[in-house]
Design a protein that fits this description.
121 residues, alpha+beta, disordered N terminus
């Protein structure tokens, strides 16, 4: 399976420079990381991950959408730094799945960001 997609973290740019990120960039990076982890795979035993690959072999697209939506909503209920506003999914003919999360930094929907995820075998 392949994915493409508060506090401060450091990031190294393409030209080798390191900078500190925060705010929506930090939240987008953290969520992308958490969505890439399988449940219970983090070294400290956290159950924050999402097991998206388990849905790739299913054929019922409505059921897949509802199951993935539920897993992502559970993740957001534990995450606490952002609020999930919308989930869009596109089922491709090659059995890959494109998910776009619309996320807000506050409960009122201000400072909205989009987080794209591509899931494939």
């Amino acid at each position: 399976m392949a994915f493409n997609v508060g506090t401060i973290y450091s990031k190294i740019t393409a030209d080798g420079k390191t900078y500190l990120a925060s705010g929506s960039e930090l939240v987008a990076s953290e969520l992308s990381l958490l969505l890439n982890f399988q449940k219970y795979s983090l070294f400290f035993g956290n159950n924050m991950g999402v097991d998206l690959e388990k849905y790739l072999h299913l054929n019922n697209k409505q059921a897949i959408f509802n199951l993935i939506k539920s897993d992502i909503e559970i993740l957001f209920s534990k995450y606490g730094k952002a609020y999930l506003k919308k989930i869009d999914m596109i089922f491709n003919t090659d059995s890959s799945l494109e998910i776009t999360l619309t996320v807000s930094m506050d409960i009122y929907g201000r400072n909205t960001i989009m987080i794209p995820l591509n899931v494939s075998n």
